[in-house]
Amino acid sequence: MVITSSTYLPSEEELTVEEVNVGTASLRAAAFHMGKHCEHHNNEFMLCRQEEDDPRSCLNEGKAVTACALEFFRKLKKTCYDEFTQYATCLDKSSGDMAFNRCRLTQAVYDKCVLDNLNIERPSFGYFCEVKVHDSPRPKPPPEPKAVYPDAAPKLPDDAERLPARFGARSIFGN
């Protein structure tokens, strides 16, 4: 992306947020419940990115997604730490690709704990693929005006001399 000296770049302080410092197995274990818990924030961020087409204007929405994920993991740690740790460890050590099918027993215990304590039910298969209408508090950005380009080359006057093609007509290639 080419930028000029007048392009606004956010400062380091605007970009710095507390990171979600968990491993792949933990993210994979918590993905379904965290996705449902933070669905509104994530949809708002993705809508902003789609509409604005500029990541700089969606920094606050991105920070809200990260804050929601941190909040979810903190709640999870307070209420279901042991069940979550067992499930994440099972995913990590049971197969090379962290397949869910080998950890259904620990998943059931974890799901029950999250349902009982955080009141978040595990979403059904295909839940995140369903069409949903997201009502955003942000105003919709105005549509970009259609670009109007002047003609690239002026037309030849009607009385201009028209010479035959230098290397013959192209009609021979069409046959």
From TrEMBL:
Keyword terms, alphabetized: Disulfide bond, Electron transport, Membrane, Mitochondrion, Mitochondrion inner membrane, Repeat, Respiratory chain, Transport
Compartment(s) where it occurs, according to its Swiss-Prot or TrEMBL record: Mitochondrion inner membrane
A Gene Ontology cellular-component term: mitochondrial inner membrane
Entry's Gene Ontology BP terms: mitochondrial electron transport, NADH to ubiquinone
Annotated region described as Disordered, given as residue ranges: 135-160
InterPro entries: NDUFA8 (IPR016680)
Role this protein plays: Accessory subunit of the mitochondrial membrane respiratory chain NADH dehydrogenase (Complex I), that is believed not to be involved in catalysis. Complex I functions in the transfer of electrons from NADH to the respiratory chain. The immediate electron acceptor for the enzyme is believed to be ubiquinone.
Family (UniProt): Belongs to the complex I NDUFA8 subunit family.
The name this protein goes by in its record: NADH dehydrogenase [ubiquinone] 1 alpha subcomplex subunit 8
Gene: LOC107226727
